[in-house]
Structures are given as C-alpha cells and as structure tokens.
Specification:
The complex is a heterodimer of chains A (about 290) and B (about 220).
Chain A lengths: L5 H11 L3 H13 L3 H20 L15 H11 L5 H19 L3 E3 L9 H13 L3 H21 L4 H4 L1 H19 L4 H14 L16 H20 L8 H14 L16 H13 L1
Chain B lengths: L2 H4 L3 E3 L3 H18 L3 E9 H10 L1 H9 L12 H7 L3 E6 L8 E9 L4 E10 L2 E7 L2 E5 L5 E7 L4 H11 L4 E8 L5 E8 L5 H9 L3 E7 L4
Parallel strand pairs in B: 2-3
Antiparallel strand pairs in B: 2-4, 4-5, 5-6, 6-7, 8-10, 8-11, 9-10
Helix pairs in contact in B: 2-4, 4-5
Chain lengths: ~290, ~220
C-alpha cells in the first residue's frame, strides 16, 4: 500500500537510506506489481508528454467558448523583452503555466498532474528549470516521483478534485507537488521537500472552484500561474531553512476539512464566486445559449 | 489511487471527467458492441448536458465510439472523422433517475445491425462506471475483460457460463447477477482476470436460453 502520511514517507526514507524519489518508486513497484524499469519509463513518458504539450502550444488557438487563448504567447513575448518585473526564470514560468492551461482548454493533449485543470503547474516550473539549468530527463523524472508521492498522500488524506474540495484541492495540490519536486531538483533534504509541500498547500488553503460557465477556462488558466509561482517561493523558503509551522499531515487534513465545509456553489458547479458575478453569469448565458 | 492515477493520464483536455471519461464511455460502448458503430444516439444527463458542449463531451463520446483513446489528438475533429467513416450520430439531453451528474445514455447500432443501449457515468479522473446495459442495471468499471450475458432467468445458466470460463482457465474477479422480474430477463456480468478467447464466446451464443452475449475485449 502507498504512503498515507508524510510522516510515514519520511520514516521510510530514514529506514531505507535511499533518496526520497527512490523510496516512492519502490512503493509503486510493490503497489502495482510492476518492475522498476517500467515504473521509471512510465514516469519519464509523462515528462516527455509535458514537453511535447508545451511545444504543441498554438498562439492562435481559442477554446470553443472563445473565452481563453493567446495569453501564453503574449506573456512569452513580454518575458523575452527582459523588462519583466519577475525576471527571466519567473516570467518564463508564468508564460509556461498560461500556455499549458490554454492548451488544455483548447482540447490539446496534456498531462493531468494531478488534474487536467491544474495541468500547467508542474510543467511551468519544470520546463524553464530544465532549460535554465540543463537538467537531464532522469533528474526531472526523479523529481516527478517526488511530486507524485506527495500528491498521492494528499489524495488519500484529502482530495485532488475541485468538485470535492474546491480549487485548493486542484491548484493547491499541484502547487504542493511542484514545490516538493523543485526542492528535490535543488538537492534539498526530504524534510525540506515536505516543508515546501506543506507551505505551498497552506498558502492556497480555502481557494474556491468557481469556473465561469462551468468550463475549465476562467479562472482556471491563470490559477495555474499562482500555483507555479507559489511553488517556487515555497521551495526557496524551504531551501533557505524556513520550516512549516504546522506539520504537513495536519495541513493536508485541514485542507480536507476546509473542503468539506465549502458550499456546493464553490465546488466546480459554476454557480458561485466568479461564475456568479454579473459578467460571469452573462458569459455563461451567452455560451450555453449559443453553443 | 495508484501513483499514476495522481500523475497522469496523458489526455486531450479540458476535463478528465467531461472529456477523458466521455471518450472512455464511448470506447467501452464500442467494445461492448463488438463491431464498428453505424449509428449512434447520445443522450446527455446532468452536468454532461449542462456543460458538455463547452467541454467537448459530445465530440469525446463520438471519438470513443470511433475507437479512439483519451489521448488521441483527433478527438476535437471526431465529428468530421465520423462523417468520413460513415458513422451517423445525433445528440440530445435526457433526465435519468438516480444516476451520477456526469452520465450519458448511448444507443448504438453496429454495421451488422446488432444494437446496444448503454448508460454510463464519468466518476472523475477519467474513471467510469457502466450502470445499465439494455435497460438492466449493471455496475462495472470497464478496466478488465468483462463478459455480459443476457439470458432467460432460469436455473443452470450461471453454471453453464462459469464452467465454460473454467475450461478455458479464465479466473473471475467479480460477478454480478441482475434480472427484471422472476423468471424474466436476466443479465450476468463477469469481470475477469484473463481475456476470454473467441471460441467459448461463440459457443455460448448458440446455447438455448441465452439471448445475447456481449464481451468487453480490452486487447481489441
């Protein structure tokens, strides 16, 4: 059985004396009864698919509703000017998150990580990181195991579904997974990965799922940006030695209880929050009337 | 959920429930029919009906009926491909009782005239459940080789089917029995660990009292 708590995962790392990603890989091998090479190859294929999804971005594509498209290209061009407030890496991250979110809305092939709506977060931090640091595929794949391992614990203790737990469960979980993966890529300790995961989730706690017209477009595409940028800041905090005041498992449990308290109108029904604004409601009426 | 339920699947967007799940519903229906689809009627219920078009649910269902998988990049152009392949389809909405909000009812007719009605729900993350076949309640995931036998509700048919599977060394992972009324029309659903060869399937169809044999062949 897979790990059910961060505490248990860290104890297993301690006990086995192996890198964090390898402990997670070994557990997958046991859980699914597959061989190591297959598990690694499968994860590596997801990384390859993320890269090809990024390359397949089309600046001209618009979603069927017409609500989103083209912003990833605007951001990429802006990032290239070098005048961005955020600097080269972060501007590139923002552009990548938008591109992937838009590709998803435009029915392109993406990697759900953990969901389709949050598919931009991990590639947004990993692709520019690999480019800037000339990181090899093996290292990125290892980092994806770390991301998936934390994601699995979040899914088992709380949720990764917006319909169940709001956007904190989708973008929040993706951000926590990405933060842990980044720490791994910077050779941080397993405890640092756990802290980064925990802080990223804390920062997005309570985020509601309120898609305009019920579509994975507004605000979903741009929420991928906050998930990615939050992951980077939490990874950097953890690498600086800053701890998570509330232990990771308790943060995950609180995400669940916040999700349980959330009214249905804020859990992917497209009836509350931004979806219920006059502009959001008018867009819904227009789209569902015309389509 | 295993590690790759969290990371992955590779899929065509925008929604794992409304797009990837819908492709799988179409694909499982196509496989249950066991032959290319000539005509299809797709009725959407609940959230599928409300936001299905924006999520491409209708195109996803057609893509699945054409045999595409959730990561097939031709999903957005499935309508045109259906036309090229001569598959007729039309969609509408329906209100079903006691079902998941993301549910579709598909009525399909194969090239040989064989027909089938399937009601299936998309549960999230691309996972699905087949809830009804030809009006009779079922409950299976479509993740393993599944045999669905329609027969007259009388003694012996279950033994007949399970004996046959035993003879071909097919192990049954889960089994469910349903019927409309006592002595009426019955359905057995057997989810198996191994694929079922073609010969026992063909011989079953000829047995007295067995009305219809449907097999979900994952290797097809």
């Amino acid at each position: 059985m897979a790990f059910v708590s961060v505490k248990q995962l860290l104890a297993a790392v301690e006990e086995q004396g192996l890198p964090l990603w390898e402990v997670i890989l070994n557990e997958d091998v046991k859980d699914r009864g597959v061989v190591r090479e297959d598990s690694f190859r499968q994860m590596n294929a997801l990384w390859a698919a993320m890269k090809s999804a990024s390359e397949g971005y089309s600046a001209a594509a618009r979603s069927k509703s017409g609500l989103v498209g083209g912003d990833g290209e605007k951001m990429r061009r802006y990032a290239l000017t070098g005048n961005g407030i955020a600097g080269a890496y972060l501007s590139g991250v923002i552009a990548e998150a938008l591109r992937m979110g838009e590709s998803n809305a435009c029915m392109k092939r993406i990697v759900a990580a953990p969901t389709a709506g949050s598919c931009g977060v991990l590639p947004a931090v990993l692709i520019p990181f690999a480019r800037a640091n000339k990181t090899g595929d093996r290292e990125i794949t290892s980092a994806l195991f770390v991301a998936a391992g934390f994601g699995q614990i979040i899914a088992s203790r709380a949720s990764i579904s917006g319909a169940e737990g709001g956007c904190q469960a989708e973008i929040g979980s993706a951000s926590a997974m990405a933060a842990a993966a980044l720490v791994c890529l910077k050779n941080g300790t397993p405890e640092m990965s756990a802290c980064a995961c925990s802080m990223a989730l804390m920062n997005l706690l309570g985020l509601v799922c309120d898609p305009v017209a019920g579509l994975v477009e507004i605000p979903c595409v741009k929420r991928n940006v906050i998930g990615a940028v939050n992951a980077i800041s939490c990874a950097d905090m953890a690498l600086a030695g800053i701890g998570s005041a509330i232990p990771p498992d308790e943060v995950i449990d609180s995400m669940r209880s916040v999700g349980d308290m959330m009214p249905a109108c804020l859990r992917e029904t497209g009836t509350g929050g931004l979806a219920a604004t006059p502009t959001g409601a008018a867009a819904a009426k227009k789209i569902h009337g015309i389509l | 959920m295993n590690l790759f339920d969290i990371m992955g699947p590779i899929m065509v967007g925008p929604s794992s429930s409304h797009t990837a799940g819908a492709v799988r519903i179409g694909l499982v229906t196509r496989k249950l029919l066991g032959e290319p689809v000539a005509e299809a009627e797709m009725l959407l219920h609940g959230s599928f009906a409300a936001t299905g078009e924006g999520h491409g649910t209708d195109r996803a269902l057609v893509a699945g009926l054409l045999g595409m998988k959730p990561d097939d990049e031709r999903i957005p152009s499935s309508f045109a491909i259906a036309e090229e392949e001569g598959m007729k389809f039309h969609s509408g909405t329906v209100t079903l009782r006691n079902v998941h909000p993301n549910t579709a009812m598909l009525r399909v007719k194969g090239k040989s005239g064989k027909d089938l009605e399937v009601v299936a729900s998309s549960l999230g993350g691309g996972r699905i459940r087949i809830c009804r076949i030809d009006g009779i309640e079922t409950n299976f995931s479509g993740d393993c080789p599944t045999l669905v036998v329609h027969n007259l509700d009388r003694p012996g048919h279950v033994a007949q089917v399970t004996t046959l599977l035993y003879q071909y060394s097919v192990n049954i992972a889960a089994m469910q029995l349903y019927r409309n009324v006592r002595g009426g029309y019955a359905v057995m659903v057997l989810e198996c660990d191994q694929p079922i060869p073609a010969e026992p399937l063909a011989s079953l169809e000829k047995e007295d009292g067995i009305i219809k044999v449907t097999y979900l062949n994952l290797d097809e």
